[in-house]
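Sequence, structure tokens quoted for completeness.
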Amino acid sequence: MELNDILGTCTFIFKQQVANLIELGNKGRLLMTKENNLLSTNTKVTYFNSKLISLDNKDLETKIKQALKYSPTEVIVFEYKGALVNFVKELDKLNFDWILSLDSTEQETIANYAKEKEIFGLTYNQKADSEWVVSLNNPSAILANGVTINSSSVISGIDLLPIIGGLLAGCPYTNSATSYVLDELESVEMPEEITNGQFTLYNEEEGVRVASPVNTLTTLTGNKTADMQDITIMEGIRRFKLDHKLSFRTGYKGKKNKYDNQQLYISASKGYMKKLEENDILDPEYDNNVKINTDKMRTLWIASGKDESEISKMSDLQIAKLTYKKSMLLKFNVKFLNAIEDCEIEVEMY
């Protein structure tokens, strides 16, 4: 033994509390469903990441390539026997951001599924009145460059869905589908009537363009505002929601409900909002922020039986540190960016 072995020790251990970062997730997974009664099993799932594919079904191959043109993260084809409603549980097992059906008889099923699961559904000629459902209403179009489906360059509105689905799934957060030129189309047939809540293509000198990219939400009540009628806003909202849910579930749920842990989550949220600003999801010129919702906490403590006068005398910091039972109550103040669609020019002439 040595002298140091019997002497007392003084050890310094430096620790730093670090917030678990909230990562910005990816967008762009498109699920296309298709009835196929020739399957040997009830369902079949195939993943496509490259246009370098060759299928026996050339029409399906063309539609997959049309979607992949816009660089979605992935195109998933879900084939099934019978009716799609019988395989909803199988859809729940898949990870995707947008869903559409290549079958005219399943458009309502897609709309209902999108509303229930709060995931984006692209449909044809549906009036779903939902921020989660987008409905294309052009009756037909003519494909350019000699491309055909069902041996014809004239395609139906349903056959336009893979093109629009690929565009919406692949469009980066820094851009919008507003006024996008679809060069795979020579022309498009206009609907008999332009109506609210319908995604419409139109013919322009430069080619077939996207008019204002909106969803089917038309009834504005409660927390559903006019901003939520725009696909761009809703994609930002969904991204915000999904990333925070994942971060809370994997990095914070189960920690002791104390002020320090809540501040770690707030710190992570502030860092995440900077990422959203960098990706043009949130407006960097706006003071996007988050804080503990002390107003809500006061209300809950009083409702739980605490003395109202005592709670009212406490400062916001004191209330924030008086964490409420199992709940972390936060209040975000953010501004989501929309796309430029309108322009007004005033010219003064001498």
Notes: The two ends are 99 Å apart (CA to CA). The mean pLDDT is 92. The first helix runs from residue 3 to 6.
